[in-house]
Specification:
single chain; globular
Length: about 230
């Protein structure tokens, strides 16, 4: 195994468990909704959108239109626009690897690649590619295992879709405990609760995202001033 591949594998060790578990949950959810097992790994291979894949299952089974699906995808994964902007310099000279690096930029991959530069001894862009492809592989593998388990085992699959929600609860809790400025978290939580009460559980996501965006934009100067003081 080449040096950069070893370094990339070691770097991605922290995400193996989460990607296998979440991919497993997606595979189980997919077959529980009546899809053949191969659709789960195929979707993870071609879409690779994390939480959006869980939402996609309900959108597909509910017969939601293409335009609504596209809008929901854009809003749920809008954070990736900012991920991409911050990675422009890193990926500037990636050459033929650039399209895949853009496609495979997930939350976890972003945190692994933006945290620190790779070791001096490795090929920088091969390292970026390997980190991205390892994460992708874990997710597809988890989806395949989950789908096969869903077909082979007589389980009660109710509640499996909550696995992604549980992950975000853990992420939120960790950020709440470590962040210097908790105002964005309060805005996110408060906006979601208000919109949940106003619009109901089926319609609150889009209004909540809009409210969060407006409040964060309006209070941007205040949050930056608070960070400067700390």
């Amino acid at each position: 195994m080449q040096t950069q591949t070893k370094a990339a594998f070691v770097k991605t060790l922290p995400v193996i468990a989460s990607y296998l578990v979440l991919g497993f949950g997606f595979g189980v959810l997919m077959v529980s909704r009546g899809y053949p097992f191969f659709w789960a790994p195929l979707t993870s291979l071609m879409v690779y959108a994390g939480s959006m894949q869980y939402v996609l299952v309900d959108l597909l089974t509910g017969g939601v239109g293409l335009l609504s699906t596209a809008m929901m995808t854009l809003l749920i994964n809008a954070r990736h626009l900012f991920y991409g902007i911050s990675m422009l310099e890193k990926y500037q000279h990636a050459g033929r690897k650039k399209p895949y690096l853009i496609f495979s930029l997930t939350d976890e991959t972003y945190s692994l690649l933006c945290g620190q530069d790779p070791p001096e001894v490795v090929d920088r862009y091969k390292y970026y590619f390997d980190v991205s492809s390892f994460g992708h592989f874990y997710w597809v593998l988890g989806s395949l295992i989950g789908a096969l388990a869903g077909v082979a085992l007589p389980w009660d699959f109710r509640g499996v879709e909550f696995s992604m929600t549980a992950l975000f609860v853990v992420v939120f809790t960790e950020q709440w405990m470590t962040a210097r400025d908790r105002l964005p978290a309060v805005i996110g939580l408060g906006s979601s609760l208000v919109c949940l009460l106003l619009f109901g559980p089926q319609q609150f996501i889009l209004p909540a995202m809009g409210m969060i965006l407006l409040l964060l934009t309006a209070l941007r100067g205040y949050t930056m001033a608070g960070e400067a003081k700390t």
